[in-house]
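Limitations

Structures in this collection are predictions, not experimental determinations, and the ligand pose is part of the prediction. Treat each record accordingly. The example that follows, with pyridoxal-5'-phosphate as the small molecule, is included so readers can see exactly what is and is not provided: the inputs are given verbatim, and the output is the predicted complex.
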Amino acid sequence: MARVDTSTSMGTNLSASAPLDESELNALREQFPTLQQSVHGKPLIYFDNAATTQKPRAVIDALQQYYCNDNSNVHRGAHLLADRATQGFEEARIALAKYLNAEAAEQIIWTRGTTESINLVAQTWGRSQLSKGDEILVSAMEHHANIVPWQLLCEATGALLKVIPVSGDGELDLEVYANLLTRRPKLVAITHVSNALGTINPVKQLTEQAHAAGATVLIDGAQAMPHWQVDVQDIGCDFYAFSGHKMFGPTGIGALYGKRRLLEAMPPWHGGGEMIARVSFEKTTYNELPYKFEAGTPHIAGVIGLGAAVQWLNAQNREAFCRHEDSLLAYAHAQADDFKGITRIGRARHKAGVLSFLLNQSHPQDVGTLLDQQGIAVRTGHHCAMPIMDQYRIPGTVRASFAFYNTHQEVDALFRALHKVVSFL
Ligand SMILES: Cc1ncc(COP(=O)(O)O)c(C=O)c1O
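Predicted complex:
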């Protein structure tokens, strides 16, 4: 179920699921080997989850199992290892399709991650559907991965990129959005959750409005997938792009969900093995979905690892995780608001997992370095979202981003450490 229907952060009722208690949290954290270490002589506090999440033992074991026992290329193999690798590979696709409530497994295309998924849509759907003067709408809070592929497409086709403004609090201006839709754009490409601000966008409503105006909709799900179980049919979007490494799976693997009608009509983009039905020098015909978009040997271990991450997530109490994360974020917001010298960047009503801030006049990188020396990992800078930083007239922020395995004590430690940073700078 999508968090929009269940989460307190969306101001709606949550069914009776208690947040995580201390022993549950401890047991959960024990499953993540990286969290068990010290850095600079201090226990690691990992608050860089929006950049990448840590991996549970189940994912690491699945990768090891694949490389130690099943390593082989997939499809068409005439031996047992190839059969086992193919089975793991395709089972992961089925598991992910179910997890997302996709209509069918063939609508899940493996890619290297969100960036590649968006580029795939730009270079195939975009090049075949857009021409001079057609409009593409993105928002001012997009990650560069949901800006630059469209700029490249505009350069190639003469299409025009239009921007939905974002308020000072970090919310989309829905009035301007409605106005921009009257120009009947061909595509609306919007992030589900902002990596720089934490804003949760009302993607179901945005999609309905875009469809009513005749536009195709792509949602960048990179920052939503780590926080709750997304339902693509409930959202109704045409494309949903995301990365495995941000949802507790391996790096280098991700996926694109697409509506069958669109995927079938789209031309392939990478040419090579696997994506063909038949090749001759006179004429090549292409494979069916999903293979038409999966040229060459895929990241088999990555797919199997992502399948293990999905299986692991399916076995967890996601509603309790959501409540716990909401509670962490509210706790961090309250402490930040009481902290003299902190300016929070991004104060949307509905947020997930991100505390972005400035500390007095200090450069974010100096703050990040001093936190690291105290064992606290955060990210600093523009977070690949330069346009929204420009809007706030700042070069970047300090970003603490949370996952379900973080604790309230870690949030306390962050603010104790920030007091030390203030006395140092
Ligand atoms: C909102 C958003 N979109 C896209 C991306 C790009 O993801 P990847 O680098 O895994 O392709 C990120 C990564 O931080 C992101 O936060």
